[in-house]
Design a protein that fits this description.
single chain; alpha/beta; five-stranded parallel β-sheet; 5 strands; globular
């Protein structure tokens, strides 16, 4: 509420920022609702906010109950946030890394070319899901480090994969990636994804809730 008041009360030196500021306010409101603090004064809820704000570093891997180190990183972020960049910076040297992405599968199936962002027909996306699930099952049985590199903007898109990984003894790390501004997201995906599509994803975003993951890492990009 304080942040929204600050935005509403600020002087717009650049008129072009008004549209983005209004979108930011909607994002703040929706995130607060997801965390259960929009209409609440419960101090227990605010402990979650403090935990999120402080949890910005990679947490060391821990050995699970079977004596193995098995970790799954589930990337979360709207298009253009920098998910691929995060993987390159943090996991490029990890051996036997299984990096599973719906975008990569679309390319493998011939639905689009490398570098092209594409969402296919219902039938095509069902085929992508089929291959995705096959790759995930193989990775669970053959890898100790898995990366699921997708938007994951809604809880229902995350929970099926998380359930499989947890049952297999993987420790779940949620990696939330956020670009400096929505304008940055737009520019990164210019000519690939319409601005309205990215904005709609941002406004419908469901922030991860405690209990979904073992660790949450928040990465605010600073390009």
């Amino acid at each position: 509420a304080v942040k929204m008041a600050d935005l509403l009360g600020s002087v717009q030196q650049n008129g072009g920022t008004m549209k983005e500021d209004l979108t930011k306010m909607e994002l703040i409101k929706e995130t607060a609702k997801t965390l259960g603090i929009w209409d609440s004064c419960d101090p227990e809820k605010y402990k979650d906010i403090i935990k999120y704000s402080r949890n910005r570093q990679i947490v060391p891997w821990k050995v699970n109950k079977d004596g193995e180190t098995k970790v799954a990183y589930l990337l979360i972020g709207i298009p253009g946030a920098g998910k691929n960049t995060w993987i390159e910076k943090n996991l490029s040297m990890v051996e036997n890394l299984a990096n599973i992405s719906r975008d990569d599968i679309r390319i493998e199936l011939g639905y689009c070319s490398p570098g092209e962002k594409y969402v296919g027909t219902h039938e095509e996306e069902c085929e992508v899901t089929k291959v995705y699930n096959e790759k995930l099952e193989y990775a669970i049985n053959n890898s100790k480090c898995i990366v699921l590199n997708n938007v994951h903007n809604k809880k229902k898109y995350r929970e099926a994969s998380v359930k499989l990984l947890q049952e297999a003894g993987f420790r779940i790390f949620y990696i939330y990636i956020e670009a400096p501004t929505l304008e940055f997201n737009y520019k990164r995906r210019e000519g690939q994804i319409p601005e309205e599509t990215i904005k709609a994803m941002a406004l419908s975003f469901e922030f991860p809730e405690p209990g979904e993951y073992d660790n949450l890492i928040i990465q605010k990009q600073t390009w």
